[in-house]
Specification:
This protein has 387 residues and is of the alpha+beta class. Helix content is 52%, strand content 18%. It folds into 2 domains: 169 residues, no CATH class; 190 residues, no CATH class. It is built from 14 helices and 13 strands.
């Protein structure tokens, strides 16, 4: 646009005000990008194409247990190379505030997660110790645990036959490390033998919360998933095979409605942004009333003046919005890596960028329309006379 230099000059006529408004817009779109990326991650589709590992849990609910006998039948499915069992434990260490992410797993579980490494002698000790537990390096550092320690955990769900209460005692036989930063979040976990858990669980034996299934060829993951689900179809324990990302999303959805929370927060943020940027544009045009009159005097049409003011408003939103989403593109992969996959976000999706651009344009037009309309209808004589 040949008048872009005039628009740019008008936009930064009051640099302090413009910069403060830009910071607000950047913050709003930074928050939008972060929240929408989380929403997209936790509302991902159920496609399992290309998945090397599948999580199989009850189709009815994650809390609904499955028969332990299903493991052998899953292993017989063509394309499956290994199956491991897992149960959520939910332990507390010493103080109710010290929640420990803990699971009861079969020995094969560790084989399915090569990103978690542990010395061979510690793995052997774990396999041979009935009450053995392995802990992530970060968790061990947090509580000062070391190999050989006896750790009492209070279960928030499962009473123990051995103790007659909710206290379960484990022997730390190994400390595992994450192979890279993308799995670092898993170092906050504690795992112990599913067999020990099954034998001492006062609620009953022979059930599993979920299975982890290793697929030989990720390209055939969808076929394998359908074959697994067909085993228990029309039974009282129908299964749902899905990716780890979808499994985590299902877990989060049972705790909170991510979509509703995101929409509520963003509605409040953008309503506030609408008022803020609208006030900025109204002040900017009001201060330049005589200047706009001069532009009309020297030959600018009313339509040209209107378009210039409207473009100024949209440009302000685009500058702040693009910077905000660009910052999200840098921050989101870091969040995903630090969570170790617990928060399945890896970048800003094209859909988030598209929605962001639409919001920038819509808000820019809305807040700029009234001052642009007033500029178009400006009477030269009244403006120059100060009326």
């Amino acid at each position: 646009m040949k008048y872009l230099h005039l628009i740019w000059a008008a936009l930064f006529r009051r640099k302090a005000r413009t910069m403060l408004t830009l910071v607000s817009i950047i913050a709003a779109f930074l928050l939008f990008g972060l929240l929408d990326s989380v929403r997209v991650a936790f509302t991902a589709g159920d496609s399992v194409d290309g998945a090397g590992r599948l999580i199989v849990n009850s189709r009815m609910s994650m809390q609904q247990p499955l028969p332990e006998s299903l493991g052998a039948r899953f292993s017989a499915v063509p394309g499956v190379t290994k199956v491991a069992t897992a149960n959520w434990f939910g332990g507390v260490y010493q103080d109710p505030k010290n929640q420990v992410i803990s699971f009861a797993v079969s020995p094969e579980y560790l084989d399915l997660y090569p990103e978690l490494v542990m010395p061979a002698d510690q793995r052997t000790a774990w396999d041979q110790t009935r009450t053995g537990a392995i802990v992530g390096a970060a968790l061990a550092r947090k509580y000062g645990w070391k190999i050989g320690d006896k750790i009492p955990l209070q279960s928030t769900i499962f009473p123990s036959k051995a103790s007659g209460g909710n206290t379960w005692t484990f022997d730390i036989t190994g400390i595992f490390h994450a192979k890279d930063d993308s799995s670092a979040g898993r170092e906050q976990m504690l795992m112990f033998h599913w067999k020990y858990f099954d034998e001492n669980n006062a609620f009953g034996a022979g059930t599993v919360h979920w299975y982890v299934v290793k697929v030989a060829d990720p390209g055939h993951a969808d076929t394998v998933a359908k074959s697994i689900d067909a085993i228990s179809v029309n039974s009282d324990h129908e299964t749902k095979a899905q990716t780890e990302q979808a499994f985590q999303a299902s877990f989060i959805k049972q705790l909170v409605n991510i979509g509703l929370i995101v929409m509520s927060i963003m509605g409040a943020v953008f309503f506030t942004l609408l008022l803020l940027t609208g006030n900025t544009m109204m002040q900017a045009v009001r201060e330049r009333t005589s200047e706009l009159a001069v532009l009309k005097t020297i030959g600018f049409s009313s339509r040209s003046v209107q378009v210039m003011v409207l473009t100024e408003s949209v440009l302000l939103l685009l500058l702040g919005g693009v910077i905000g989403l660009a910052l999200v593109s840098v921050i989101v992969p870091v969040i995903g890596a630090q969570s170790g996959g617990m928060i399945p976000v890896h970048g800003v999706s094209a859909n988030t960028w598209l929605i962001g651009f639409v919001l920038m344009l819509v808000i820019g037009v809305v807040v700029g329309w009234i001052p642009a309309w007033r500029a178009m209808r400006l009477n030269i004589v009244d403006a120059l006379s100060g009326r």
